[in-house]
Amino acid sequence: MTTTIDERTRADQAHLIHPLHHPSAHQAPKIWVSGEGALVRDAAGNEYIDGLSGLWNVHIGHGRRELAQAAFDQMSTLAYNSSYAGSTNLPAIALAEKLSALTYPSINTFFFTSGGAEASESSFKTARFYWKALGKPDKTKIIARTRAYHGVTLAAMSATGLANFWPMFEPRVPGFLHIDSPYPYRFVNKTPGVSDGVAAANLLEEAILREGADTVAAFIAEPVQGAGGVIVPQDDYFARVREICSKYDVLLIADEVITGFGRTGRWFGLERYGIEPDIIQFAKGVTSGYVPLGGIGVSDTIRDVMNGVPPEKRWMHAFTYSGHPTCAAVALKNIEIIENEGLVGQADEVGQYFQSRLQGLAGHAHVGDVRGVGMIAAVEVVADKASKQQFPATAGVTQKLVDAMLERGLFTRVVLDAVCLAPPLVTSEAQIDQIVEAVGGAIDSVTRAVQG
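RESULT FIELD:
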């Protein structure tokens, strides 16, 4: 088996370019071969708890034959056909109809993509289209936030607020700008008498006024910033954001690629804050990652504008795989499983246990912050708790934490020294205990070693 693994590793290194590619990060890659529920196994036979649901997306767990059967049945009937205007298919129709019932009341019309970055691109173009159709062609700018992740195609990368994605692909697309994240652990409120959440949201108003409201098309935000370190905003943040967007005629785009389909203990993340976006974008959990699918949903107001323009000014946007019948069929079965097994409620209930257990790590000398909601969380490791100072990059804490958790049977990611966690919604409380013990043990051993 070792020889086979070595051979396959050499073939991989010779022929595959990986996301975030560099050979230095791929000397001894894990070759994943199987999974069941919240567990994954590598080619050497080692078993791990999947602490990040693959990449925030395997909501119903690994090895669900129902989704394989749904794909087989649809492929055997109509694997693919175009969904360009003038053509459609039954699974795509049914999925759009189902999403209309699940998402925010004002959003009832959907466009399908192959993933989250394409969804971001679709949102940006739709926002620009909308304002041009209403006779406001100068409203083109997109405001995003630092530590945001919206994908890494060129426009999506320009919205993504993680600067390490930019340098080797500059220049970014013009017309994208960023305001600070609400990031409760590190946000500095410079407005006395105003709550941190409102102060953070007010940065949006300041940016709109600085740029000119007649130039700003949309504000895009994740209900919980995922890849930026699992940042849960203050409770009053999004209500103020919605108020500002409405005041200045700026569309609010909710990037629910990570938070959608039960991750936060609600079907969609903004439900917790009692507001509705103008555009919602989704991917990942809609199929639990079994096949690629994403999309956007637009408000009835935007839909009516799209439908009301003359043919020569139509929404000239398209992807070959939009409305892919096999992907739509798998999504429908995935949503059916989430509903039938009560996984949204389970994410809320088990999520409360998850968050409570993680809070037990807050007293560690090098745990600066423990944060999360539902089945998504982060434990931020710091060098000094009082100053919130991080360990220097030369200490290599990020990779050491990953390796230490692997040794303890947990596979997940560490971002900016924050251990990110988003296990499948089917994860048991016993497995939650194992996750927390692995994280705590890894933090303890790594920080002791780093400090000598």
